[in-house]
Amino acid sequence: MQVGDKQLVVGPDEGKALWLGGLGVIYKVRGKESGGAFSIVEHPIEPGKLVPAHVHSREDECSLVLEGEIGVRIGDREFTATPGTYIFKPRGIPHTFWNAGPKPARLLEIISPAGFESYFEEIVGLYDSGGTPTPEQLLEVRRRYGMESVDWAQELMAKYNLRLR
After folding, report:
1. Domains and CATH numbers, the chain
2. How far apart are CA 28 and CA 147, in angstroms?
3. Which region among 88-92, 119-123, 131-135, 149-153 has the lowest average model confidence (pLDDT)?
4. In the chain, how long is the greatest CA-to-CA distance?
5. Conformation bin of residue 92: beta by default, left when phi > 0, alpha when psi is -120 to 50
6. Mean pLDDT across the chain
7. Which of 102, 104, 117, 142 is deepest in the core (most CB within 10 A)?
8. How crowded is residue 144: how many other Cβ atoms within 10 Å of its Cβ?
9. Looking at residue 63, what is its pLDDT?
């Protein structure tokens, strides 16, 4: 159900969907619909896929595990989260997550304040515009969204038999 530019009810199969090589992004509530207060995206994740570690300078994120097992590292702590678990990832603290189970997993992510949800579209746009983006192009997008990369990939991939998305 929509009133003006605000989507008031979003069904389970509704929302613009993007795919980032093992990590899906399904838009449920965009920042324009919340007056910039927050956005909500759903992330389906293939088994064994690792989201590159990063730190946000502007946003806090709260995730709810909907399905599967999600491995999480926030700062120097690691844990496995199962359905019904909430995960808080405050701005300024490095974090990453991955599908730690043998089956597909899903989590719902609330991002506050809104704005970062557009990052995913920009990244997909770089790939869709032909070929593989350069590291400089990816770095520029990250910078615009106040995000920095953290170099945990090799350690976590070796420890948990993961692949980057």
Report:
1. 2-164 (2.60.120.10)
2. 22
3. 131-135
4. 49
5. left
6. 94
7. 117
8. 11
9. 98
- Amino acid residing at 110: I
Rounded to an integer, what distance in angstroms lies between the CA atom of residue 12 and that of residue 146? Answer: 30
Q: State phi, psi for 118 to the nearest 5 degrees.
A: -70, -20
Token pair belonging to 104: 């597909």
Q: Which contacts (CB < 8 Å, 24+ apart) does range 116-122 have?
A: 116/39, 116/56, 116/58, 116/59, 116/145, 116/147, 117/27, 117/30, 117/31, 117/39, 117/41, 118/31, 118/145, 119/145, 119/147, 120/18, 120/20, 120/25, 120/41, 121/18
Name every residue whose Cβ is closer than 8 Å to that of residue 1 and which is 6 or more positions away in sequence: 7, 8, 9
Residue 5 pLDDT > 70: no
At 112, the amino acid letter reads S
DSSP structure string for 96-123: EEEE-SSS-EEEEEEEESTTTHHHHHHH
Cα–Cα dist 154/105, whole Å: 22
